[in-house]
């Protein structure tokens, strides 16, 4: 859309072809283009002398815009805010998980309102549940050849290089590739009802770039339960399997001699692989979380999960405090509890600087970050356990440098009959 023409300086008239309504709040004329022969745009047409008899009202579908009262019926049929027909692959809450109202308390207080004793108990539970977990992940930092020239361009500074690493989408697209965008919440997406997948019966690879918090759990359930389970129930023989069955014995022997036998899976699976860049664990939700059974096995439940997901933000929120701020920690915490104000960005659990005296029950910046990382690791371990129970071989690894993104952990999963993630390029 063309940019609006500027209002002439030093004149009391609107720009040519623009609305003649003066917006008092902005101290200028409206810059919307008007129809031929009109003085005002549709939004301000009621101000025109010749249109005074027609009344404009708020749209009942979206009160952010107005419409002529006598044209309301016509407008409702084409308003962009109207409810549109649902596609066949929309099934309400199909990937949401079961909702157990008895597990979730009606009201959970913010972290900032917990006593020191309550916080210490939560941290003890976290550390006990995390015992034995491997917090040292393997580096699997790779880049696509399509980016090499741009990344090695001496004209690009650090910021441009970082941006390129973060914005790699679309760089690898081939001319003969088919791309289709589905505008739908993953919570309601039924993959086996998408025409292409239903017709060709192809195995899918789920790729997610920063599926914030709960979206990761919805995506995992969409792939592993909704799609995979439905294909197995129908007992269909997909195209990939038919191709293998059509190979002659001679062809298979030739492949084996070349060392490519591992490329022919012994058992076909609807989901050939999963790759998800994890982030925003503080946006997770107990109802949708796929690792509930893992938490329950550790003696944890909805309450602990709620506070762990809140504390997970400590790993990435940049909590460095000055010595002066640290010296006022005790006073501020008391004021916080007394005035009932909103929760702090850092989760409400105050930090002391390493140079300041460490009070009982308080954490340093580094300790707090470690707690945040433990929360993330425990939540992700529940997802690992879920995938293992569903017949996958999952792994967590670093996919980029923390200087590029603090959210740099990748979740990968392959069917158990495939090569392990550690041996797969």
Automatic annotation (TrEMBL):
Compositional bias ranges of the Basic and acidic residues kind: 336-353
Reaction(s) catalysed by this chain's protein: cytidine(4) in tRNA(Gly)(GCC) + S-adenosyl-L-methionine = 2'-O-methylcytidine(4) in tRNA(Gly)(GCC) + S-adenosyl-L-homocysteine + H(+); cytidine(4) in tRNA(Pro) + S-adenosyl-L-methionine = 2'-O-methylcytidine(4) in tRNA(Pro) + S-adenosyl-L-homocysteine + H(+); adenosine(4) in tRNA(His) + S-adenosyl-L-methionine = 2'-O-methyladenosine(4) in tRNA(His) + S-adenosyl-L-homocysteine + H(+)
UniProt keywords, alphabetically: Metal-binding, Methyltransferase, S-adenosyl-L-methionine, Transferase, tRNA processing, Zinc, Zinc-finger
GO molecular function: tRNA 2'-O-methyltransferase activity; zinc ion binding
CHHC U11-48K-type domain residues: 56-83
EC class of the enzyme, as a word: transferase
Residue span of region Disordered: 326-353
The enzyme's E.C. designation: 2.1.1.225
Role, per record: tRNA methylase which 2'-O-methylates cytidine(4) in tRNA(Pro) and tRNA(Gly)(GCC), and adenosine(4) in tRNA(His).
This protein's name: tRNA:m(4)X modification enzyme TRM13
Native organism: Balaenoptera physalus (Fin whale)
